[in-house]
Amino acid sequence: MGIHVIKMPDLGEGIAEVEVVAWRVQPGDTVLEDQILADVMTDKATVEIPSPVAGTVLALGGALGEALAVGAELIRLEVEGAGNAGTSKAVAVQPAAAVAPAAAKASQAASAAVAPAPAPQAVAVPTTHAAPAPAKSARTAVAPSRATREPGEKPLASPAVRQRAWDLGIELQYVFGTGPAGHITHADLDGYLARGNGRARGHGGAGDNRYAELQGEQAVPVIGLRRKIAQKMQEAKRRIPHFTYVEEVDVTEIEALRTQINMRWGEERGRLTLLPLLMRAVVLSVRSFPQ
Fold this sequence. Notes:
The structure is a single chain. By secondary structure, the chain is α+β, with helices and mostly antiparallel strands. Among the domains are: about 1-80, CATH 2.40.50.100; about 145-210, Irregular (Dihydrolipoamide Transferase), CATH 4.10.320.10; about 245-280, no CATH class. The protein is about 35% helix and about 15% strand. It has 7 helices and 8 strands. It has helices spanning about 90-115, 140, 160-170, 185-195, 225-240, 250-270, 275-290, and strands spanning about 1-5, 15-25, 30, 35-40, 45-50, 55-60, 65-70, 75-80. A hairpin with a 4-residue loop joins strand 4 (about 35-40) and strand 5.
């Protein structure tokens, strides 16, 4: 078995590096000849990189979104035969493998030479056992943090408890009831809040635990075409002046003309919109201002 290193090919004139946008294989996968290994993106197109040999993937040359220079290692395969990688690494590993048994024997001899010290005998010390604390009620000790109910099962609670749960942003479906027949009480709501559940509702009573604020963050890398779009938009915002021009025009007369034309010729020639009249005004204006 040998190691075959596939390097990033030259994809065109003037291309010095490419960006990895997708890996089609992972370490441990078996690949065939001409199987697609990865998708890379240049400034002009996305290109598929095939495998020139068959083998097993040992390592990938970079992560998604990473830029690889032309000629850099793209992927490393284990193939039948010698492969194209150098043998210096294999030669360097052999002395370490030969020394390993000797080091293991020396370690065993050193551990055998040092006899373990005898453990001191334990001295019996009389202890006094404290009286066991009275057990709490099973209902209080085993109360879960969130109740689990069957689909369609409605929680039992009084109207006052339901109103308070609504104001606090608590879903009664997840509150464990300690009242008779599993009724949810105000104390159950207090305990549910004390365990860090629920939150106050927003203005107008909107929102509940399903829309609670999430802690932490999830990093989503922007790669490929999305990265290019973001870079171009950022450059345009930084280099191109952005402004808005507003001009107010009184169109009372032109609207009256359009209404008059439509009343006279609308059924016969079709009704006019404002656009043809604006186009006619632009044509007449260009004659006076050709620049």
